Amino acid sequence: MISRRLLLAAGMVAGLGLPMAGPALAQAPAQKMPVVASFSILGDFVKQVGGDRVAVTTIVGPNGDAHVYQPTPADAKAVAAAKVVFVNGLGFEGWMDRLIKASGTKAPIVVATKGITPRTGFVDHDDDEKPKAKGKDKHDHAKEGGHDHGGIDPHAWQSIANAKVYVANVRDGLIAADPDGRDVYTANAAAYTAKLDALETEVKSAMAKIPAEQRRIITSHDAFGYFGEAYGLVLVAPEGVSTESEASAKDVGRIIRQIKAQKIPAVFVENVTDPRLIQRIAKESGAKVGGTLYSDALSDDKGPASTYIDMMHSNVRELSSALSS
Q1: 55, 56, 147, 175, 188 from 93: Cα distances, Å
Q2: How does pLDDT run across 63-80, given as a tens digit for each residue?
Q3: Is 28 helix (H, G, I), strand (E, B) or coil?
Q4: Contact call for residues 322 and 267 (beta carbons, < 8 A)
Q5: How far apart, in whole angstroms, are the C-alpha atoms of residue 227 and residue 204?
Q6: Three-state secondary structure of 121-172
Q7: What are the distances in angstroms from CA 108 to CA 20, 72, 87, 112?
Q8: Which among 88, 126, 294, 316 counts the fewest CB atoms within 10 Å?
Q9: Region entry Disordered: which residue ranges (predicted)?
Q10: To 10 degrees, the CA torsion angle through 36, 112, 320, 314?
């Protein structure tokens, strides 16, 4: 009886000239493939490309700071169960090797920044006016599971052109782990890349409307270098490319003098950093505090930056509001 009803229904659809299920629907698996992404921005890329074929677990979630994250047993369990693990690379997740080893996973590790030329020549600021803990220095910390970027800026996603490389690497990683989903992953990646093309046009247009002499800001840590290079923004950060590094009194004094000398109009807090340092710099320099910029993590679902595209829109909106007035 059930088969007869299905056949009748199919016949009605055909008779009405309506299309049967498309390729993406036909290829939807009975069970979603478990995958892991190291942080929320990368997790969004994986969700956009993977669609209904994947179940994504993100290690460092919304508003989380991947620079200083400490993995949990639940993270190790998720990595162990994953069919593929996506990481940023470029020294961003200094704890990832430790987590992978602890999990015993045999899943392939896909580095989403493969093919991107990183910004180099950076040195994280040390607080040379504050005594170090006895027997430890920043290199000891790196060996114990922290991380040293080695002079490389890992925040490559802040350039939309680079985001497209992330998407291509995610697509290829998913196809390698799940060849049956090739058509779905290819189509999803192409559709999302088209959205990124439109986003890039919007961002370039919005930034171009800000007077060139106004495109100078202070942020908590050096996370927007790729954005600055791509869209003509000059940035100064009291901390280095990692939130693990601390700004010294000398660094802060230098930045306050620079703000006054160059008439830098605004300072911005980030969603992953303590706002007190930026608030102090603003108070002592006379610069206004702009809105919150999303650097290393998305917001939660109720925030303005719950996806990568929303994050870029939110950041540009805050920059335009603070720098155009």
Answers
A1: 21, 18, 7, 24, 27
A2: 999 989 999 999 999 999
A3: coil
A4: no
A5: 10
A6: CCCCCCCCCCCCCCCCCHHHHHHCCCCCCCCEECCHHHCHHHHHHHHHHHHH
A7: 36, 21, 11, 12
A8: 126
A9: 120-154
A10: -10
Q: What is the pLDDT of residues 238-288, one digit of tens each?
A: 655 445 556 677 777 888 888 888 888 888 878 767 778 888 888 888 888
> How do strand 216-219 and strand 119-120 relate by DSSP bridges?
unpaired
pLDDT in tens, 201-214: 999 999 999 999 89
DSSP tally for the chain: helices H, then strands E = 12, 10
- pLDDT averaged over the chain? 82
Share of the chain above pLDDT 70, in %: 78
CB distance 162 to 116 below 8 Å = yes
The rounded distance, in Å, linking the Cα atoms of 175 and 296 is 27
The whole-number pLDDT of residue 3 equals 43
Q: What is the pLDDT of residue 276?
A: 81
**Interatomic CA distance for residues 99 and 76, integer angstroms:** 6
Contact by Cβ (8 Å): 169, 110: yes
Residue 110 has what pLDDT? 98
Cβ 320 vs Cβ 266: under 8 Å: no
Between strands 152-153 and 216-219, the pairing is: unpaired
Mean predicted confidence (pLDDT) in 144-159:
73
- Predicted confidence band at 193 (pLDDT cuts at 50, 70, 90)? very high
CA angle 275, 99, 61 (to 5 degrees): 40
Contact 7, 146 (CB under 8 A): no
Sequence-distant (≥ 6) Cβ neighbours of residue 26 within 8 angstroms: none
Amino acid at 145: G
Tokens at 85, concatenated: 């693990």
Mean pLDDT of 189-194: 98
DSSP three-state, residue 109: strand
Residue 92, pLDDT > 90, answer yes
